[in-house]
Amino acid sequence: MTGPGRRSSTFTRLLRHGFTDPSAAQRLLDLPDMSSVRSDPVLLDSLGASADPDLALRSLVRLVEAQEPGERRRLLDTLITAKPLRDRLLGVLGASEALGDHLARHPRDWQALVTYEASDLHPGVEEFELCLTGAADPVSLRVAYRRCLLSIAARDVCGTTDVAEAAAELADLATATLRAALAIARSAAPADAAACRLAVIAMGKCGGHELNYVSDVDVIFVAEPADGGVDEGKAVQAATRLASHLMRICSETTVEGTIWPVDANLRPEGRNGPLVRTLSSHLAYYQRWAKTWEFQALLKARPVAGDLILGEEYIEAVAPLVWQAAERENFVPDVQKMRRRVVDNIPVAEVERELKLGPGGLRDVEFAVQLLQLVHGRSDATLHSGSTLEALQALAAGGYVGRADAAQLDDAYRFLRAMEHRIQLYRLRRTHLVPEDEADLRRLGRSLGMRTDPVATLTKEWKRHASVVRRLHEKIFYRPLLDAVAQLAPGEIRLSPKAAVQRLEALGYADPAAALRHLEALTAGVSRKAAIQRTLLPVLLGWFADSADPDAGLLGFRQVSDALGKTPWYLRLLRDEGAAAENLARVLSAGRLAPDLLLRAPEAVAILGDPEGLVPRGRDHLEQEVLAAVGRADTAEAAVTTVRGVRRRELFRTAAADLIGSYGTEDSPAEADPGALVDRVGNAITDLTAATIAGALRAAVREEWGDTLPTRFAVIGMGRFGGHELGYGSDADVLFVHEPREGVDEQEAAQAANTVVTEMRRLLQLPTADPPLLIDADLRPEGKSGPMVRTLASYEAYYRRWSLVWESQALLRAEPMAGDPELAARFVELVDPLRYPAEGLGEDAVREIRRLKARMESERLPRGADPMLHAKLGRGGLSDVEWTVQLFQMNHGWAEPGLRTPRTREALAATHAAGLIDTEHAQILDEAWVLATRVRNAVMLVRGRAGDTFPSDGRELAAVGRYLGYGPGHVGDMLDDYRRITRRARAVMEELFYGA
Questions:
Q1: How do strand 732-740 and strand 711-717 relate by DSSP bridges?
Q2: pTM to 2 decimals?
Q3: What span, in angstroms and rounded, lies between the C-alpha atoms of 414 and 468?
Q4: Which of 41, 127, 297, 744 is the most exposed place for a label (fewest CB within 10 A)?
Q5: What whole-number distance in Å separates Cα of residue 336 and Cα of residue 324?
Q6: Nearest to 849 by CA among 814, 884, 894, 803
Q7: Residue 794 near residue 739, CB atoms below 8 Å
Q8: Quick check: 492 pLDDT over 70?
């Protein structure tokens, strides 16, 4: 029995050696089987040096108890006297519960760790094949495999091998295992074995000599008929049976568990294609159908089992195709698709714990290296390596990646792979998630040599390395491009001009020579400005390359930098305000409109760095600024020049917010609700247009009459202006109404009103650097034949006597926008009975509206336009939705107050709320209207001029797609979705509007 003093002393010693449950550890040491070693300081020191001393001791006791009685003393004596065994065995038992379980089931396997010969330190495929000799069935193969794995893990946890060597050993063990499994399959079907030549090509991490402890082993099978005139089809069938059996031998679960899944999904056509193909069949597929990612996968292809001569023939045949992949027509959009981070399928709660796919994870390094191999390996054979770290070293040696960047990435990749190895080793389960449990994190940190506060140290180091990867994984594409145009110190290696052009082409630049000139101009010299540009550009180039038009982004950035380069705040803003640089890159590369607006007054770039800068200004705020500017100006022209400058700035603010909300940034995702984006743009541009007209009205009045016009005057918004639905290219539809002031002659008042209208329109269209605002009054009574401006009494007389149903329909959008508010309110009061007639429309009026709509469809669609893709007049487009909603407004607005709104979406929602249409129909119409509106906005943003149809130019069409949320290469999906959504809307419209 242990006395209290001894217990206290042992308890303290166990705590000091890293045990977290000293009481349980002491009970284990007090077992009779452990009596000979319980007080041995060597044993306690070695247990304390393991990743998890408690786990190591528990597993050791289980191993001792599993020995034959005569073997227990031998194991413990060897353990105490042989330091190599002690370090290896206890190191494994403290790091891997699963291997402890294996040793308890196979207690003699500890002897595999006793030998310490030179060949044992770095075994290769031959040594592993020797270890697997005698494994004649799946069960014995699993036991032998685990015995080999035990030795790999022992060298790994003891530091005999580094992480790259351990990964290579795991790949060599996988090679030996595939060969053994194929031998079992061949012996089970000798006729099949005799009928074919079958080669097993390792892919992925196994092919790259960088396998994990637990990973799918990716393979491709190639077969040819055996010599002797065997029919090719029968040979392929025989090979397929052998390959299938091989996969089952490795993958199926037996009493000894499984080895690993053999995954053949990287083969041509994936799981839909045949498991085995001939060499010619493989080549035919790769030459005609293969996608870029398939050539990327082939970077790691390596023959490992079966007919190795056939395997080498396969590698020699596909290699030229791999290194020509960067010259393929779709390489750039394919690369853009692959470069967009694939974290969508990772549960949100797991993204930050993902070592492989999360931000700053292993996949970032692997993808960056593989892409640079594809781009530059076509002219540099030193890059032809399947190993990530070897390829990274070759890229640095060739000047394709900066040496310092490569060294940091190498260090980070090794650390992250070591974490991944230790996480998987614990239970031999396939996972890439960093554990959350404190005990798991403690064991993980200690297994990596962190003994003082292992949890905090591990977390800090992990985050540091992930941050390095996040920062560098895109930067390494671009920094060497700057070195290519810079003055380097003697002896430093740079990208050749040819290599720089190749890289820019691969990143989507249509004119790489011009791009290099821009880079040279931006970074020339030794000034502080050039130094900041060299810091900014690697990141900016990545954002430009993520757009549909990288050339335009870089050109725009050079133009803005040339204009603002001497101002002290510009580069400081981009460097220090995290969002400003990315926002600028997104805006400059998304199309023509926003850069054109910015380049007319580049100082507006400050908007992009202000946290509130992208929030639209309200009408009151804008009117206050505009009217104050008019009051300070000496002439009407000077006043409206200032007003139009405000309009240009606010158009840029709106466009920038729209683009950034549509694209998203690294820190904030894209706006999930496209309707919210549409409403924001429509409200912002409508408020801006109203304020601009108010400013022009004040300027025109002040120039001629001072503060008071002889007649009261109001501007009524119509069409999209009245509906708060203006787009970037919209004119302002208006009606002008006036009423002579008391004592003023009607003719004098009319002349004054007409003079004001003429002057307003002139001022807003003067040729200046700012975009004009076109005012369209064609919806007035009598159209172009009628007077431009009428008195309220004249409107009343006309509408009472001559008004047509289409004019009543147009008045649904009437909304006061500028001028005398009391007069405008009386105008609205006048037209309400026309647009919301009591008891609704009569049958004749409904029939007339339907006739007008049908006529418009047949006559107004531009010649040659595709009616399925015209956003305004096409089937299911804006016109279909708006006329449907407006018919409900005119029929039911008198009884349903919610329908009395000039806004289409509000009226549609009110129609649904009133029970006039069902939920599905309302959603279909709303989705189509929002989409068509966004298409029109996108066309204006991309092309810089208004349009109702998708652009025909491929790059412009791709830019529209990016704005609408479609990634590179998905233009076809965008057009298909548009047709589908608008087709459904047309069906609803025909039912609700035409009564079909």
A1: antiparallel
A2: 0.74
A3: 13
A4: 41
A5: 18
A6: 884
A7: no
A8: no
